[in-house]
Design brief:
Its main location: membrane. This is Gap junction epsilon-1 protein. One of its GO terms (biological process) is cell-cell signaling. The chain has one domain: de novo design (two linked rop proteins) (Up-down Bundle). The protein has 205 residues and is mainly alpha-helical. Helix content is 71%, strand content 6%.
Length: 205
């Protein structure tokens, strides 16, 4: 791919054709990624080291932590961010290959429909991620986790494990749910903005 295509692609990703889309890019790219990258590491970075069970043995701690965290929240949210970016990135790659200017997207019915479809996909992916997050992490992190260690062939079947910084993790969970809801609202608002522009209620950029 030529440098011109790459430049058009990057400009399209950073400056979508709608005002709300541009705000979504700023919110998504700056606030959400900063929150996950910096604060997420501070909250979850040492969780495995401080996760301890009774009896406090490495074998038991590791087994129970893997049961407690089938996937670490940082990995899940990073995958969510990447996957949600895919529909928009695919559209802007198509626009770059076709040499479509951002200001022309809302002037053509096919391009507009294609762009709206990519926004709908973002909404669906965010909704699926929201549901998966509930299934994996719930809405609250308890201080005590009851671990089933029967598979280790111990004399006991259930042991108590201490979850470090459970209150901070609960706050972080709620924040990530909130980010997902805000992103969905912005996507819906972007579709509304596009509809208003197509109907002439709002002037095109």
């Amino acid at each position: 791919m030529s440098p011109n295509y790459m430049r058009s692609f990057s400009e399209g990703c950073l400056r979508p054709p709608t005002v709300i889309g541009q705000f979504h890019t700023l919110f998504f790219g700056s606030v959400r990624m900063f929150f996950l990258g910096v604060l997420g590491f501070a909250v979850y970075g040492n969780e495995a080291l401080h996760f301890s069970c009774d009896p406090d043995k490495r074998e038991v701690n590791l087994f129970c932590y893997n049961q407690f965290r089938p996937i670490t929240p940082q990995v899940f949210w990073a995958l969510q961010l990447v996957i949600v970016l895919v529909p928009g990135a695919f559209f802007h790659l198509y626009a770059a290959c076709k040499n479509i200017k951002q200001e022309d997207i809302l002037q053509n019915s096919f391009y507009t429909g294609f762009y709206i479809f990519s926004v709908f996909l973002r909404i669906i992916l965010e909704a699926v991620a929201f549901w998966l997050q509930i299934q994996l992490f719930g809405f609250k992190v308890n201080a005590i986790y009851m671990c089933d260690v029967g598979a280790l062939e111990k004399k006991f079947n259930v042991t108590r494990c201490m979850v470090p910084e459970h209150l901070e993790k609960t706050i972080f969970l709620i924040a990530m749910y909130t980010f997902t809801v805000i992103t969905v609202i912005l996507c819906v608002a972007e579709i509304f903005e596009i509809s208003c522009r197509r109907l002439g209620i709002l002037k095109n950029q």
